[in-house]
Specification:
This protein is an alpha/beta fold. It contains 10 helices and 17 strands. It has 2 domains: 179 residues, HUPs (Rossmann fold, 3-Layer(aba) Sandwich), CATH 3.40.50.620; 112 residues, 3-Layer(aba) Sandwich (Rossmann fold), CATH 3.40.50.1220. The protein is elongated. It binds flavin-adenine dinucleotide. Its cofactor is FAD.
């Protein structure tokens, strides 16, 4: 029953974006390994999610169901997925790097007596060995490591959000559906959710799929120019992002950093303002459909990857753009 499995995380009744991105990775692995692609969900009353999932190019949807799965709990989800692994014997299971997965997956890996590669930035199937190659940064981003779990199954990893594009819906596709009532698997409940409280995050934190991003680099130079950059972003209805260089100048807080050690985004348009185009920064924006670079140095590396380049001082170019908009 070997297969490539993707754990589909549901949050507030919706599939998480990262899970749909992982279907893209899983689809490629399944094609390369000639395996079935299985989307696995854990929950209660999963009909709506199953209905959504069968619109994507998965071979099978496995729904692990029990009323106690309404809310996430470490023990019960570990038990459910462990039962799934024993029954379906996946060759590999992909998870998004989410708070839930950080709690769940190490425990599941230990229960399955297998390895886990966390926070990967890519995953591929190695034809010679028939093993999955997990790639991630190490030592604070100073090195890239390719990691293999040679002797144990399933091979398990968590993958960072934004490194794959979301898979697209397909028509005329028929996925098998296995619904599994997990009543027999339920053990003593050690944790009970008494109340859930929603915490409202700022717009910058929740919009993980911005269409347009204005990236601020060290070339913006001083804080008194931030207002101009914010006006520019507002005029375009864009989100702000930053290079590490800009954050080191304290132009924006750390959470705005795009790149190897920051956010991975794939907007339609990325406007890099005063950003040189270091590989570590570009790693976070490689999924952008169109890159526009504004830089005063004609030899800046960003011009090698940009679709459109404007060579000049951003402090005179941005006000001109604002007038035009
Ligand atoms: C292990 C490691 C991990 C890293 N991870 C990340 C990461 O995740 N994200 C990240 O961003 N960086 C990361 N970095 C840092 C990265 O290598 C670069 O140093 C950083 O991205 C540079 O930021 P910058 O392009 O803003 O600054 P700079 O490289 O200093 O570039 C500034 C640019 O602005 C231009 N400029 C100056 N004045 C103007 C003007 N008036 N108008 C127009 N253009 C102007 C200059 O020509 C220059 O090209 C990492 C580095 C290491 C070692």
């Amino acid at each position: 029953m070997s297969n490539i499995s993707v754990f589909m995380e549901v949050h507030n009744g919706q599939l998480r974006n990262v899970s749909l991105e992982l279907l893209t990775a899983g689809h490629q692995l399944a094609a390369d390994a000639h395996e079935e692609l299985v989307a696995v969900i854990v929950g209660n009353q999963n009909d709506a999610i199953i209905e959504q999932l069968i619109q994507y190019p998965v071979d099978r949807v496995v729904s692990l169901e029990h009323f106690s799965y309404e809310n996430y709990a470490t023990d019960s989800y570990t038990d459910a997925l462990h039962a799934y692994v024993c029954q379906y014997q996946p060759q590999c299971v992909l998870f998004g790097t989410t708070f839930l997965a950080k709690d769940l997956v190490p425990r599941l890996a230990a229960r399955c007596k297998t390895g886990l590669t966390a926070e990967c930035t890519s995953v591929s199937y190695h034809q010679d060995t028939g093993k999955i190659m997990w790639s991630r940064t190490g030592f604070g981003g100073k090195m890239m490591a390719d990691i293999v779990c040679p002797d144990r199954l399933p091979q398990m990893g968590t993958i960072r959000e934004g490194v794959y594009k979301k898979t697209k819906k397909v028509t005329g596709h028929l996925a098998k559906i296995d619904r599994w009532d997990m009543g027999e698997q339920i053990k003593l409940e050690r944790v009970r959710i008494l109340q859930k409280t929603a915490k409202i995050l700022s717009k910058q934190q929740i919009d993980d799929e911005p269409e347009i991003v204005v990236g601020l680099g060290r070339g913006v130079r001083t804080l008194d120019r931030i207002d101009m950059m914010m006006d520019f972003a507002d005029a375009l209805d864009a989100e702000l992002g930053a290079s590490r260089g800009a954050c080191e100048l304290r132009l924006l807080p750390e959470k705005f950093v795009i790149g190897q050690n920051g956010r991975n985004l794939h907007p339609k348009i990325y406007i890099a303002c005063g950003i040189s185009g270091a590989a570590q920064h570009m790693a976070g924006i490689s999924g952008a459909d169109c890159i526009i670079a504004i830089n005063s140095d004609p030899n800046a590396p960003i011009f090698k990857v940009a679709d459109y380049g404007i060579c000049g001082d951003l402090h005179s170019i941005i006000p001109e753009f604002l007038k035009l908009i």
